[in-house]
Design brief:
The chain contains one helix and eight strands, in the order H-E-E-E-E-E-E-E-E. By secondary structure, the chain is mainly beta. Strand 5 and strand 6 form a beta hairpin. It binds copper (II) ion (CU). Copper (II) ion (CU) binds next to loops.
Length: 142
């Protein structure tokens, strides 16, 4: 093989590896869970979500809080599902109870992923209104 062909082949491989590693980048994190509450618009209002204590760690008792603003929601419970994007981790949900107008709280645990991945998604489901998702990374505390 000529030298320039070898170089061309090498460059092609480098580009291929680069593209592959980019496409493997995983789910995009959209909530900095250790900075405070994250907020999503829904309907004419919004939903805020936070976990305390911070920094958020796995295998600890955590408080999950959802706050509704300008949303008509008369139920006294909200279900919050925890999942890992692209993984089957088994069903994991937290029952949130209304503690004051528009504020729902519940305790739960985020398990440690055996694969070492640390990105989680919380899906907040409001009956007849819809679902919002928050994707966050526990980083080295996952
Ligand atoms: Cu996992």
């Amino acid at each position: 093989m000529e030298a320039r062909h070898k170089i061309a082949l090498l460059l092609t491989l480098v580009v291929a590896v680069f593209l592959f590693s980019c496409s493997k980048k995983g789910p995009s994190v959209d909530c900095d869970i250790n900075k405070g509450a994250c907020t999503r618009a829904i309907g004419n209002g919004s939903i805020s979500f936070e976990i305390t204590p911070r920094p958020v760690r796995t295998m600890r008792r955590l408080l999950f809080r959802v706050r509704l603003r300008d949303i008509q929601y008369d139920q006294d419970r909200i279900k919050l599902f925890l999942e890992m994007p692209g993984m089957e981790m088994g069903e994991n949900f937290v029952n949130l109870k209304r503690i004051s107008k528009g504020v729902y709280e519940g305790t739960g645990v985020i398990v440690r992923c055996p694969s070492g991945k640390t990105i989680w998604r919380a899906n907040v489901v409001l009956d007849k209104i819809g679902k919002v998702s928050f994707t966050f990374d526990l980083g080295n505390r996952g």
